[in-house]
Amino acid sequence: MKDDHYIALVGKVVRVVETLRDEPDGLSLQDLASRTGYVKSSIHRMLQSLRIHGYIEQDVTGGKYRLGMRLLVLASGFVSRVELAKVGRSCFEITGSSH
């Protein structure tokens, strides 16, 4: 069933961010394109927009992209309103892992 309120671009941006989440050392534009299946020019525009807002950082020497500090600020708003034990339990349920 198709959701009439779904915005495909938002889904693509989330996928790029989640792909970077799994790579603390960052990924190149080419690696992101390979892992997501998206065109490099589209990913580049997404990354530049996220970088301007602080959600993505780009390594100046290697050019790799990684999650930015602004995501931590965003997450802290969630953590501050939810019991830490509940967050840990939810993470365990999502990942199926205790670490």
Q: Would you kindly provide a written description of the structure presented here, covering whatever features stand out?
A:
The protein has 99 residues and is mainly alpha-helical. It folds into two domains: 1-67, Orthogonal Bundle (Arc Repressor Mutant, subunit A), CATH 1.10.10.10; 69-99, no CATH class. It is 59% helix and 6% strand. The chain contains five helices and two strands. It has helices at residues 8-21, 29-36, 40-52, 69-79, 84-95; strands at residues 56-58, 65-67. It has a two-stranded antiparallel ribbon. It starts with 7 loop residues before the first helix and ends with a helix.
Number of helices: 5
Distance between the ends: 35 Å
Sheet-strand content, in percent, reads 5-15%
* CA-based shape: globular
Helix content: 55-70%
Task: Provide a compact summary of the structure.
The chain has 99 residues and is mostly helical. The chain has 5 helices and 2 strands. The model has no long low-confidence stretch (mean pLDDT 85).
List keywords for this structure.
single chain; 99 residues; mainly alpha; Arc Repressor Mutant, subunit A; 2 domains; two-stranded antiparallel ribbon; 5 helices; 2 strands
Furnish the topology, listing elements before pairings.
Layout (H helix, E strand, L loop, with lengths): L7 H14 L7 H8 L3 H13 L3 E3 L6 E3 L1 H11 L4 H12 L4
Antiparallel strand pairs: 1-2
